[in-house]
Predict the structure.
Amino acid sequence: MKPYSDENHPDLATYLTGFILALLLTLLAFGLVITGGADFSLGSIGKVPGIGEMPSWFIIGGVIILAILQILVHLRYFLHLSFGSSQKWNLQAILFALFIIIIMVGGTLWIMNDLNGHMMSGSPGNNL
Amino acid sequence: MPEASTSYPGLAQPSPAESSPPAMIFGFWIYLMSDAVIFALLFATYASMSRNYAGGPTGKELFDLNNVFYETLTLLISTLTCGFAMLSLSRNKKKWVLSWLGFTFLLGLTFILMEHNEFHSLISQGAGPDRSGFLSAFFTLVGTHGLHVSIGLIWLLVMIAQIMFKGLTTPVRSRLFRFSLFWHFLDLVWVGIFSMVYLLGVL
């Protein structure tokens, strides 16, 4: 093991940056759903002007993009993953895992959606 | 095998004779990746089942975003205190390491209790895992994450005991570093859960 060097050492600033970025992305994601959710239940208040005006593809896409960004923030600032030579093997492992995940998750969603399209006679939501 | 280990916090002391911490950290990283595959498939299962309500309650009726927000905040702060513990470790401040790990434990325990309350209220409303395909997939995914956090809490208690009785020796440092990877990874999985399950579930 090499002697310890302070250059690559994650310091206080690394953790605080990661925390603040993660917090901002979390607030954005919750804010997007709460203020923009189409026909979002607000109890007796009902539909407040300006709420429920965003198209649902925008909210869904926004939440997914914010989640991916936050996962990258966690990898970079908390798990200290980087493109440096010291992280080469970790990076290869995560890329391989990502490859497996894309095949398995993508394949599952594709097949199940396809089956759903063949099996269901309308009424989505009534099947077990 | 990874050679350079300079970016791992808290592993300052060289260990000539023992098996090298970087190799063990890489091994643990492989475990985390296999765990990531498990969670990804539980996410895929949930996504396929998320509209199969079987006439039962939907996510929009069941999920309480306030509760989810506090759970998210608790876990995020616990990830920060865990990072602070690793910083104190690299400066050999044993008392600070113990204090930050203590905070991490309390926050993790709070998270588990909040999740327990949520599950309890869902089941007492008749929205248990046996109600519909949607709820089976929900309880499997969120419950697996909760189980990981619970095991992390036990691991954390063991590490606190090891620091108190063995001190900050090289094996203890190496274990602590792997614990911090595990804890940060669990927060990363939670990002997926609160986004995909709860936020998209109430739409």
Remarks:
- Helices of chain B lie at 21-49, 59-62, 65-90, 94-124, 133-166, 170-199.
- Chain B touches chain A through 66 residues (CB under 8 Å).
- Residues 23 and 153 of chain B are 24 Å apart (CA to CA).
